[in-house]
C-alpha cells in the first residue's frame, strides 16, 4: 500500500473530505482532517443533498455506513412538483414514488447536510478532526509539505488532499486553470418556522421539492429539517451582479421589491418567501470548470470535489462527484497495481477529470435549459423523456 507510514492531511471537512477520511481509515491509513469551522455544531448552509446510486451511495456503502444513512435520510424529501410562475402544478410524483427504494438506480434519497456530516464524523477515529483550522498556505518540506493555518499552527504532511471547495487555496499549487462563470447567479433564501410563516409554499412543497419556471427565471426549493425551507431564486445576470446591484440582502422589503421587478409575471404566491426570509440572503454566482482541463500530476498533493471540478448544481452531481472522487482516490492509493504514489495519483486524476467534465457539461446544459424562455416546456419534456424517477 502506497500510503503506509505516511501522514495524510485532508483540507476540508465536507462530504468529500469526510468520505475520504473514513475510507482511508478503513484501510489503516494515518489521516487528519483540517476544517475551518470552529466545531461540529457550526451551521451548514445549502440545500439538502440527494445521493445517487452510482456515486454518493456507492461511497456510503463502501464506507460501511449505509444502514446508519437509512436512519438519517428524510423519506419522501426527494418527491417533487414542477410548476409555472403562478405556482400552478404541471407535474407531481408525490403519489407514485416510494419513500424508500435503495438499489433502484433512480432512487435519490435526500439528507440534510448536518446529519450527513454527523454520519461520517461519528465513524472516524477520535482525534481525526482538527477544527478551527483555516488553511492559509503550504511549502515543500522533505518529501511532503508544511501546512500553515490562520490560527498560527503548522503541521507536516506527506500527502495533502484538497477538499476545500470551489475557492480552494490548494488548487493553485497544482494548476493555474480557473473556473469560468456560468452566466447564472442563485440567491439562497431560507425560512425557519415555515409551516406557520409560509403556509402556501409549505403546502406546495408537501415535504418535498419544488421546481418553478417562468420567463427565463426559476425558483428551486425544498423542505429541510426542523420546519425550515430553502429556496434559490435563479437568474441569468452579469458575473458581478451580486456585488453591484445595490440590494441590501438584509432588507426583506428591498428583496421583495427586487423579486417583483426582476421576476416579471410571477404571482404573489411566492412573496411569502421573501417576506419571511432569514436575513441576510446569500447570492451565489455559479461557476464551472473548463471541460478540457489538464495538468501534470504531483506525487504528494491532489484534489477532490469542487476543488477539482466545480460545476453548476443543475444535475445534483456536486456532492456525489466529491464522494465518488474520495472512493476512487482511496482505491487508487491503496492499490498494489501501481509502482509509485505518483502513478496512483496520475491514474486517479486522469479518470476524475474525464468524469468531472462529463458531469459539468450535463450540469451546464441543464442550467441553460432551466433558464430558457420555454423552460417549463423543456423541463416537462425532459422528465417525460427520461421517465419520472420512482415510477
CATH class of the largest domain: Alpha Beta
Euclidean distance between termini CA atoms: 44 Å
Largest sheet, spatial ordering of strands? 5-4-13-14-15-12-16
- Profile the largest sheet: 7 strands, mixed
Kindly identify the CATH topology of the largest domain: FAD/NAD(P)-binding domain
Which geometry do the CA atoms define? globular
Can you put this structure into words, describing what you see?
- Helices cover 33% and strands 23% of the residues.
- β14 (217-224) and β15 form a beta hairpin.
- With 391 residues, the chain is α/β, with parallel strands linked by helices.
- It is globular and about 65 Å long.
- The chain has a seven-stranded mixed beta sheet with strand order 5-4-13-14-15-12-16, with helices on both faces.
- The model has no long low-confidence stretch (mean pLDDT 94).
- The chain has helices at residues 15-26, 56-62, 66-72, 113-121, 194-197, 199-205, 241-244, 252-262, 271-275, 306-309, 318-333, 341-370, 375-386; strands at residues 7-11, 30-34, 49-50, 80-84, 89-92, 110-111, 129-130, 135-141, 144-149, 154-157, 159-162, 180-191, 209-214, 217-224, 228-236, 282-288, 301-303.
- The protein has two domains: 7-73 and 109-178 and 289-370, FAD/NAD(P)-binding domain (3-Layer(bba) Sandwich); 180-288, D-Amino Acid Oxidase, Chain A, domain 2 (2-Layer Sandwich), CATH 3.30.9.30.
Amino acid at each position: 500500500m502506497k500510503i503506509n507510514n505516511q501522514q495524510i492531511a485532508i483540507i476540508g471537512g465536507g462530504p468529500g473530505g469526510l468520505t475520504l477520511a473514513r475510507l482511508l481509515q478503513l484501510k489503516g491509513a494515518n489521516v487528519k482532517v483540517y476544517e475551518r469551522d470552529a466545531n461540529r455544531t457550526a451551521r451548514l448552509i445549502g440545500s439538502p443533498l440527494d445521493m445517487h446510486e452510482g456515486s454518493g451511495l456507492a461511497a456510503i456503502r463502501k464506507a460501511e455506513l449505509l444502514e446508519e444513512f437509512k436512519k438519517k435520510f428524510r423519506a419522501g424529501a426527494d418527491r417533487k412538483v414542477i410548476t409555472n410562475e403562478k405556482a400552478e402544478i404541471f407535474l407531481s410524483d408525490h403519489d407514485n414514488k416510494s419513500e424508500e427504494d435503495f438499489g433502484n438506480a433512480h432512487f435519490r434519497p435526500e439528507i440534510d447536510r448536518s446529519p450527513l456530516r454527523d454520519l461520517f464524523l461519528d465513524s472516524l477515529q477520535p482525534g481525526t478532526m482538527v477544527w478551527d483550522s483555516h488553511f492559509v498556505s503550504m511549502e515543500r518540506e522533505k518529501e511532503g509539505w508544511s501546512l500553515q493555518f490562520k490560527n498560527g499552527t503548522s503541521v507536516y504532511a506527506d500527502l495533502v488532499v484538497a477538499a476545500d471547495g470551489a475557492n480552494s487555496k490548494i488548487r493553485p499549487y497544482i494548476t493555474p486553470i480557473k473556473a469560468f462563470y456560468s452566466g447564472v447567479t442563485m440567491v439562497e433564501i431560507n425560512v425557519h418556522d415555515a409551516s406557520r410563516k409560509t403556509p402556501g409554499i409549505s403546502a406546495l412543497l408537501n415535504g418535498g421539492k419544488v421546481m418553478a419556471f417562468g420567463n427565463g427565471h426559476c425558483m428551486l426549493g425544498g423542505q429541510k429539517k426542523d420546519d425550515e425551507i430553502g429556496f434559490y431564486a435563479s437568474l441569468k445576470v452579469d458575473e458581478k451582479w451580486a456585488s453591484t446591484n445595490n440590494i441590501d440582502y438584509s432588507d426583506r422589503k428591498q428583496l421583495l421589491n427586487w423579486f417583483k421587478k426582476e421576476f416579471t409575471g410571477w404571482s404573489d404566491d411566492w412573496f411569502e418567501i421573501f417576506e419571511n426570509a432569514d436575513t441576510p440572503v446569500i447570492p451565489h454566482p455559479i461557476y464551472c470548470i473548463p471541460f478540457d482541463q489538464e495538468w501534470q500530476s504531483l506525487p504528494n498533493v491532489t484534489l477532490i470535489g469542487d476543488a477539482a471540478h466545480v460545476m453548476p448544481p443543475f444535475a445534483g452531481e456536486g456532492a456525489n462527484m466529491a464522494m465518488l472522487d474520495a472512493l476512487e482516490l482511496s482505491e487508487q492509493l491503496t492499490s498494489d497495481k501501481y509502482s509509485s504514489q505518483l502513478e496512483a495519483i496520475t491514474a486517479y486524476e486522469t479518470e476524475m477529470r474525464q468524469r468531472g467534465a462529463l458531469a459539468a457539461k450535463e450540469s451546464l446544459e441543464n442550467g441553460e435549459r432551466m433558464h430558457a424562455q420555454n423552460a417549463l416546456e423543456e423541463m416537462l419534456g425532459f422528465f417525460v423523456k427520461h421517465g419520472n424517477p420512482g415510477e
